[in-house]
Amino acid sequence: MNFKFTKWHGCGNDFVIINGLEENIETIQPQAAAICNRNFGIGADGVITVCPSENADFCMRIFNSDGSEAEMCGNGIRCFARYVYEAKLTTKSEMTIETKAGIMKPKIIASGDDVLVTVNMGNPVLQADKVPVAGFADKTIISEEIIVDNENFHITCVSMGNPHCIIFVDDINAVDINKWGPVLEKHQIFPNKTNVEFVQVLNRSKLRMRVWERGAAITLACGTGACATLVAGVLNNLCDRQASLQLDGGLLSIEWNESDNNVYMTGPATKVFEGKYSG
Ligand SMILES: N[C@@H](CCC[C@H](N)C(=O)O)C(=O)O
């Protein structure tokens, strides 16, 4: 398989972006794991394709590094927006992008010398059966206790189009994410598996978050995870509706707007290099 690609990252969460308007990407999904492999491929947390859309300016597909397809990707969509704008696939700095989680609206903004992207990520989904979490019907899961391998966790579950399980902890550095991440990701109460965020509240407007991503293991950042975490923090009365999320790879600013119920994410999107893949 041969294609031209561009490599991007958002807070260290990195992606291979392929322009499906020019490249043949019909068989990309079976190749995604090989492309993302950090020793034998390009190396990335995910592969993103730019596709045409009948309902929006573009359609984005995102494949995790294990080859599974996700509904949405927060860091990825900021990179996508900046990519299509800088590659001159559009002249709009504010655009609509269709995803499997609905239509998202990124806006490219200048901030001093930096370029940031703000995305209207839509409404968070809180009903258990829609996140989905099994066994709780349409209840909202806020600090629900579950016991896994004799360890107690208080989970709050939020979908931002993709599922998230948020756990507030006293000391983020004391959490063995490699141990608990995969166990919780594949726990039987999550029929579609889940992303898992461990969060330490630094103050009401600053949270420290680390993530185990469904289909990608530990990554340096997760945009949908940061949005879900802010929502979970508000539901648990641990933070304000606007806060900074300190991730391993950078900072995201998240707001859950009270009047329209939408979550807004602002953060960087950085191009790293371009290349040609033959594999
Ligand atoms: N890193 C992404 C999320 C990518 C998809 C996720 N692993 C899933 O399977 O839901 C983000 O920035 O949101």
UniProtKB/TrEMBL annotation:
Its EC number is 5.1.1.7. GO terms for biological process: lysine biosynthetic process via diaminopimelate. GO terms for cellular component: cytosol. It is found in: Cytoplasm. Pathway: Amino-acid biosynthesis; L-lysine biosynthesis via DAP pathway; DL-2,6-diaminopimelate from LL-2,6-diaminopimelate: step 1/1. It comes from the Bacteria. Substrate binds at N13, N64, G74, N75, N162, N195, E213, R214, G223, T224. Coiled coil: none annotated. SUPFAM superfamilies: Diaminopimelate epimerase-like (SSF54506). The keyword Heme does not apply. Keywords: Amino-acid biosynthesis, Cytoplasm, Isomerase, Lysine biosynthesis. It catalyses: (2S,6S)-2,6-diaminopimelate = meso-2,6-diaminopimelate. GO terms for molecular function: diaminopimelate epimerase activity. The keyword Cytoplasm applies. PANTHER family: DIAMINOPIMELATE EPIMERASE (PTHR31689:SF0), DIAMINOPIMELATE EPIMERASE, CHLOROPLASTIC (PTHR31689). Catalyzes the stereoinversion of LL-2,6-diaminopimelate (L,L-DAP) to meso-diaminopimelate (meso-DAP), a precursor of L-lysine and an essential component of the bacterial peptidoglycan. Homodimer. Belongs to the diaminopimelate epimerase family. This is Diaminopimelate epimerase.
